[in-house]
Specification:
Layout: H1 2-24, E1 40-43, E2 46-49, E3 54-60, E4 63-68, H2 74-83, E5 91-92, E6 97-100, H3 106-143, H4 149-182
Antiparallel strand pairs: 1-2, 3-4, 4-6, 5-6
């Protein structure tokens, strides 16, 4: 019974972590190294994450500097950034790649908020599905007579409280991301 609640909470934590990770790659008006988390660079025939082949720093609010550990990767890094959905234009001075983060248009901000809401809704649905799986597990345990009806009822209520708590967290994270996106 406690194992069902514990494993359910663990799955809900992972869903929340995935949402935060997804939000980190949503571009706001501010520079962030997390923007490049999903970008892979062709490194001698292998697709490697950008942060494993270069140092990414944010010296100013709207500037990102990427310093490859291997100077031969400059072109590959630029190509990977240009072909990503970030719509950024890197400039290369032979030593480092600089990327100026342009301010977002109002239309683009609204698109990003819509994307964030969509990701949050997917997380809420995932959390509810995890709750359903936990309840199914409890019903199975009740059927097998390994727990009593009272235990099943109490555990179901605990799962609902857990679900409400995690959905509130999703809503809170979404609210913060919306503010960040809409800030000029």
């Amino acid at each position: 019974m406690q194992t069902v609640i514990g494993s359910t909470e663990e799955k809900m934590k992972k869903t929340l972590a995935n949402l935060k990770e997804g939000f980190a790659s949503l571009r706001t008006g501010r520079a962030s190294a997390a923007l490049f988390d999903k970008i892979k660079v062709d490194y001698y025939g292998e697709k490697s994450p950008l942060n494993q082949v270069a140092n990414i720093s944010v010296p100013e609010a709207r500037l990102i500097v990427i310093q490859p550990w291997d100077k031969n990767l400059m072109g590959e890094i630029e190509k990977a950034i240009r072909s990503s959905e970030l719509s950024l234009n890197p400039s290369n001075d032979g030593k480092v790649i600089r990327i100026a983060i342009p301010p977002l248009t109002e239309e683009r901000r609204k698109e990003l908020v819509k994307l964030a809401k969509n990701q949050a809704e997917q997380s809420r649905v995932a959390i509810r599905n995890i709750r359903r799986d936990g309840n199914d597990e409890l019903k199975k345990m009740l059927k097998d007579a390994s727990i009593t009806e009272d235990d099943e009822s109490k555990s179901s209520a605990d799962l609902q409280k857990l679900t409400d708590n995690y959905i509130d967290k999703v809503n809170q994270i979404l609210e913060e991301k919306e503010k960040e996106i809409m800030e000029v």
